[in-house]
Design brief:
- The structure is a single chain.
- The protein is α/β, with parallel strands linked by helices and 548 residues long.
- Among the domains are: 40 residues, no CATH class; 108 residues.
- The chain has twelve helices and 32 strands.
- Strands 17, 18, 19, 20, 21, 22, 23, 24, 25, 26 and 27 form an eleven-stranded mixed β-sheet that branches. Strands 7-8-9-10-11-12-13-14-15 form a nine-stranded mixed β-sheet.
- It is globular.
Length: 548
């Protein structure tokens, strides 16, 4: 067993791990798996957006770099255009100074891409997304249209809001871990459902309300069967348009989920020899969380279509032989890289696209044999890379991901704060950055919301509202307002960030595993339910007997 140098946790380095490290020619890690993921997540500012000027054109842009960040930030056309050359920032490696110190200086000099949202239309307030149309504050998403306030793997949604990890749906509100739903609100772990509200773990259901564990049912309320006419009459008792009544229903839903619904210890489907949670259509996956169509991976978060990778976060689509990388899509033989796409053979690189065989570079496009943004011949590159690696091994830098301290973002702006929250004082003590609140975003409200949406005026769209949880100002978009009216749904009293936090705290387990036993048969198993948050936690066999 090894002891993590960042926390007192002991962790195992298995024979499989060692074989992979040998294949990638890297030393064993000094941090435990969760601390390694925390370090990578500290480089992903997914959802905090700001307005500032493009440092090349002077035009206004929306970006995830606040105006007080000491970095050059370019808009899409400027960064991808020919108006600048990243090789102009090239420099020699100084063997008398630490690598990470020099790389941090390079990050401050080379222009940074404002956001990552290519091939999108009228969706400037999106990030880590592509192929979206008319979307607003939607992140980690693709192929969506008219979708608002949604994040964490949002794919092919239309006319939807406030969703988290949802695919292929229309007219959805507050859908979490769902697929192929239509006109559903407040549903979790459901697929193929329509015209239903407040469902948990239901499949193929329609016209159901406040139910759990149903399969291919219709006209159910509180897991009780009704005729169509009885169902329609009974539903008149519920008014989702009243904020007070909706909050009561949400509370009832949470009680049902935690106390009545049956929970399977792990969400692993159509997979072989897998350990982790939310693993689908995969084989030989170890200690990973949310993996789909993957094979021979370990310690990976949010991996889609990966093979023979270890310690990745948000690397997806034809990724192979990656180690300790963040968001390196469609890339292979990558080590210690950040957001490098369509590339091969990169080490310690950041925001490089369509590149090969580069080391310690940032902002490159279609380059090969570069170190610190300086061009070399193949022979010069290989000789110098070998010397730098040897120097980094002596100093203990090689084999470690970039330090959190050189992330361009405040720790509390990044996904690390969501997975591994820290108080400001603790983060600063560790040498991490911190982004303080903008006081101009916390003005007093100038409008009082009506309890029932049918009594609300369209004047609300021009009003200054204040979040009931954190005090941050928010507003309603015309498209958003139209959906609330269509659904007869009470408008929220919280900002997008607090609504997202509620969904995370309520329904996303910590990405770790604990030893527990089945509440039905007593069989021991691993589970991502760490505490006593649910009453009925069953092994897969007992779960299947109950719901089918």
């Amino acid at each position: 067993m090894e002891t993590c140098k960042n926390c007192p946790t002991q962790f195992e380095v298995s024979d499989e791990d060692k074989a992979f490290y040998k294949k990638m020619d890297v030393p064993q890690p000094t941090l435990c798996p969760l601390c390694r993921q925390q370090r990578r997540a500290a480089f992903r500012n997914e959802r905090q957006l700001y307005k500032r000027k493009c440092d090349l054109s002077g035009n206004d842009i929306v970006t995830n770099y606040s105006s007080d960040k000491p970095y050059k930030v370019y808009g899409y056309d400027q960064w991808w255009g020919d108006g600048w050359d990243p090789l102009e920032y090239g420099r020699d490696f100084d063997f008398d100074r630490p690598f990470f110190e020099q790389f941090d200086e390079l990050l401050h000099d080379v222009p940074r891409l404002f956001l990552y949202n290519p091939f999108s239309e009228n969706s400037q307030y999106t990030n880590h997304s592509y192929h979206n149309k008319n979307c607003y504050l939607t992140f980690d998403s693709a192929y969506n249209e008219d979708t608002l306030y949604s994040t964490n793997l949002i794919v092919k949604l239309k006319d939807s809001m406030d969703c988290m990890t949802a695919e292929e749906g229309e007219f959805l509100y507050w859908n979490i871990y769902t697929k192929k739903n239509y006109n559903c609100k407040f549903v979790v772990h459901c697929s193929g459902c329509m015209d239903s509200d407040f469902l948990y773990d239901c499949k193929g259901c329609s016209s159901c309300f406040m139910c759990h564990g149903l399969r291919n049912k219709q006209y159910y309320i509180n897991n009780t069967k009704y005729s169509q006419s009885e169902y329609e009459e009974k539903m008149k008792e519920y008014n989702l348009g009243s904020y007070k009544k909706l909050e009561k229903l949400k509370g009832d839903f949470m009680k049902m989920v935690k106390g009545d619904a049956i929970h399977k210890n792990l969400h692993i489907d159509n997979s072989e020899n897998c350990m982790g949670d939310y693993i689908f259509n995969s084989k030989n996956v170890r200690w990973s969380f949310y993996a789909d169509n993957c094979e021979d991976i370990a310690y990976c978060f949010d991996a889609l279509g990966n093979k023979d990778c270890m310690d990745t976060y948000e690397s997806s689509i034809d990724c192979e032989l990656q180690y300790d990388c963040y968001a390196c899509n469609e890339s292979s033989m990558m080590r210690f890289c950040v957001l490098c796409h369509f590339s091969h053979g990169l080490e310690y690189c950041d925001y490089c696209f369509h590149c090969k065989d580069c080391f310690g570079c940032t902002g490159l496009k279609k380059k090969q044999y570069c170190i610190f943004n300086k061009q070399y011949t193949k022979e010069e590159y290989e000789e110098l890379r070998g010397r730098i690696v040897a120097k980094m091994k002596e100093s203990g830098e090689y084999g470690e991901f970039f330090p959190v301290a050189i992330s361009p973002f405040g720790y509390n702006e990044t996904m690390a704060q969501e997975f591994s929250p820290l108080a400001k004082e603790v983060a600063l003590e560790k040498g991490y950055k911190w982004q303080d609140k903008d006081k101009k975003s916390y003005l007093p409200a100038n409008y009082n919301l009506a309890d029932d949406v049918k009594d609300e005026s369209e004047d609300v769209m021009g009003a200054v509202l204040a979040c009931g949880s954190c005090g941050k100002n928010y507003k309603f978009m015309p498209k958003e307002w139209a959906l609330y009216k269509r659904w007869g749904l009470a408008v929220p009293r919280q900002c997008f960030d607090c609504r997202h936090e509620d969904r995370v705290l309520g329904f996303r387990n910590v990405r770790a595993l604990w030893n527990k036993s089945c509440g039905k048969c007593g069989k021991d198993f691993l589970t991502s339910y760490g505490g006593d948050e649910v009453k009925k936690l069953y092994c897969e066999e007992c779960y299947l007997k109950e719901v089918y």
